[in-house]
Amino acid sequence: MTKQEAKQRIEKLKKLINHHRYFYHVLNRQEISDAALDSLKHELYQLEQQYPEFITPDSPTQRVSGKPCQGFEKIKHKIPMLSLEDIFSEDEFRSWEDYLKRLVPNETLEYFCELKVDGFAISLIYEDGIFIVGSTRGDGKIGEDVTQNLKTIESIPLRLAPEAPALSEVEVRGEVYMEKKDFEKFKKTYANPRNLAAGSIRQLDPKLAGSRSLKFLAYDLVSELGQKKHSDKHRILKELGFKTDEGIICKNRAEVVDYWQKITKKRETLPFQIDGIVVNINDNNIFQKLGIVGKSPRGARAFKFSPEQATTQILDIKLQVGRTGAVTPVAVLKPVEAGGVTISRATLHNEDEIKKLDVKIGDTVIIERAGDVIPAISRVLPELRTGKEKEFHFPRSCPVCGGKLIRPEGEALWRCSNSNCGARRREFLCHFISKKAFNIEGLGPKIIDHLITEGLVSTSADLFELRESDLLPLERFAEKSARNLIEAIQAQKEISLARFIYALGIRNVGEETALDLAEYFLTLEKIQKSSIEDLEKVMDIGPVVAESIYKWFRQKRNLELLKKLEKTGIRIRIMNYELRIKNKKLRNKKFVLTGSLESMTRDEAKKKIRELGGEISESVSKNTDYVVIGSTPGSKYEKARKLRVKIINEKEFLKLIR
Ligand code: IVH
Question: Which of 64, 219, 259, 280 to mutate to test the pocket of ligand 1 (most atoms within 8 A of CB)?
Fold first, then answer.
């Protein structure tokens, strides 16, 4: 981005952020999520850091929230109440750490991490141990006197603990918040507990504040009471009679990231909402030495949980051709963090979606990622357009083979009509070897690409004809790896009927339907010979799916493929454990056993798991669902912990199979 472009982008970002702030804070309407707005602010902040000459006093990054409102007395903070700069990933943490190391090269950095409660910051002043005045943060320099309201909060001591040293003035800062359970009844009227806590403190009737079961968590001791470390502050605050978060001292980045990940998981089970952890340089001297930039201390960061939404730019729109010929547009994104992972692609689904979103190449968009769902674009921000954005035109011919694209009436997808299309063949092969199909260990899309380019494989049957000597000349293979792959392919020659049907990649036949067909017909021959009516007799199979299956088995090239597969020696079997598996409790669950069980032998346990539809594997991977540990578990236990796979003991296992 040129300097001029950065300047324009900054202007546009400021305008857009202000627009949404106005909507949210003045009109009480929310057009985009907090996370998306934060993401825009983050981009603005980073651009401004890069080009500080473009920082203006009216920039949202310079704004300190909440002007004092009429009706409360103004209180000037002796020391400004600052706020924290956000980081969202280990990478951003690393950049911060590198920056600090440049500033204080001779210091060993130790961190104190604590929960970042999603509430409302306040300052409390005690004189001779007595609570005298409490104020909001206001603009950071001047806040509002909300002493009467704060006095209704039971966790704020009105007198410091008697054993605390008598001091003329003590200032404590922390967060007023509301527990999730108390928030329940206000859910309809307030967006979140933070808004409600803020609203309750900044209203004029203390009775109302008193009725709202607010709590206070102290996180900063401003006065000097001999603390050398941030951890000392927490200890002293506790001694003074405040509730504080335990926190944890971390010796290095790895420990901080570990804690952050742990809290990310624990977050839901906490009684109050948090939006991250706060990481402070533990040594107060170093913290002071690092000083302040803008309105934030250099020595602390809010290490927030990745929001599931973020804003980024579309660099390009590419087309992907799937195994059934479906052409899906995919947005290539400027990489951005959302929901804990870096996202660089998002599906645009189909041509209509592109039109509906009115998305252009170069646009800034809001992307969303929930759970394991493929990231999608939820909204375009046309306000940030520069005029250089490019319209995307959906082609009428396949981007891979040039074949004609067709879009049957009533369907949203364009499909490549050439069944010999290279992309379709590749995708089919990848599907064929995938976990739920032939599940060939050590064989993935990269090797498939290699085998195709070398002309070694063109149909799935070719895989079974591969010899070690075919692989050896290839760059990525040595004797051992070539042997392993051939063995892995040969080992999968015996396959269950359901997996085999699924592997064929018949349109509309997923894992479930494949199982239904296997259970109903029991042999491939019977499925092959079935009429559409026969197929429709299977529960859950309707006319569209039935027609698709019927047609598949009537196409010459498919019948040829079946013959070829048969010739390679593939044995299709009805596996006992797959029969009537649909309603089985442990269906598709992958187990690893380690250590010995008291109530049964390992073989008995395996049998039981299989009977209930589960699968056993010898080694722990991230695909493992449960690791069952008996006495003296081996290294699998450690691996499971590392990969955060669910670990269960014998008692829990027995409960599961009961
Ligand atoms: S330390 C320099 N610690 O998060 C500001 N803040 O922008 C010192 N917050 O305004 C803040 N939990 O309202 C700190 N354990 C914690 C916190 C915490 C919540 C809030 C606070 C602050 C904002 C950060």
Answer: 219
